[in-house]
Design brief:
Length: about 400
Amino acid sequence: MEIDVLIIGAGAAGLMCAATAGYRGKKVVVVDMGKKPGRKILISGGGRCNFTNENAAPENYICQNPHFVKSALSRYSAQDFIELVDRHGLDHHHKTLGQLFCDDSAQDIVDVLMTECDWAGVEVKMRNEVLSVTKTEQGYQVQTTETNYSCTSLVVASGGLTMPKLGASPIGYKIAEQFALKVLPTCAALVPFTLHDHDKQRFDGLSGVSVDCLVTAENGTSFRENILFTHRGLSGPAILQISSFWQAGQSVMINLLPDIKLTELINFWREESSQKSLKNCLNTLLPKRLIEIMYNEKIIPDKAVNQLNHAEILALANYLHNWQIKPNGTEGYRTAEVTLGGVDTDELSSKTFAAKKIPGLYFIGETIDVTGWLGGYNFQFAWSSGVACGGAV
């Protein structure tokens, strides 16, 4: 079958690219080995899809070349995507930190993309696995389980390795390596931490407890959001964010009281509530179950506030403001939201996402070495890279 553009992957980036190219009059086919298009979209944001972030800017992305994302993000912004969903009448709402979610269901976003593809004359072929890719004089021969395609442009939008249950596949990296493009090491990102056995036992009763914290990685990167204790370790937005900046063997520092200077507050308590126990006073600041563990481990002295000496106050303040914990690892690709690493952006044009050395070959979305923060940033890069590529193929 002869076509202009074949896109591997019916996810956010692939469908956006397909519609953009289709509207330019290109004959476009999207192939995907899964049963449904947009599988990661459907489960994102608790089924409501955090589809963009109003604040999306280059500094919200991790990439070995920090300038790479500038062109695509500036040419297709969060506001552009918001205007697209508004044209389709999709009801959505804002949450904190610039995040936008569907009012009803993530299916609404998939419906917008599939409608756009339909209007643009794009064919989307599901349950169609790519078996081989061969370069030809005119472009590419791509053998799938269903058809043999001849295309002028081949776009790889096959995603990363996250959530293997949804059919994650390394095919994008394999195609890059087949054409001698550099692929940077990959690992799970935006992912919960697991803890060593001794810490797991310490916090055994805290599963479900959430605390607003400032979490800092060893490289100095910090995020202020909730952490969540789980039966395996630590999760919550601040932990997912910091996981992208953490490396095996490193500690993370957690300020459990980011809005309070504990030494000053304890001195105030000494004047106002001198007979109260320190434990009861701290129960007003942090979850009781967490305070109980620290009390049992004698981190919190068994004293009234007026009995504390200067050294005890400083030690407690240092512990609560600079709690250090060394994760055992992460929960891995099974629960990660994105894959860190991928096709080296130095191999690609930042304007078109074309491979510099291989004419007619393009890589977009999560397959490449661009990882956004938690909060709609990765979807925005999918839309932006899809539009940039779709306008060039």
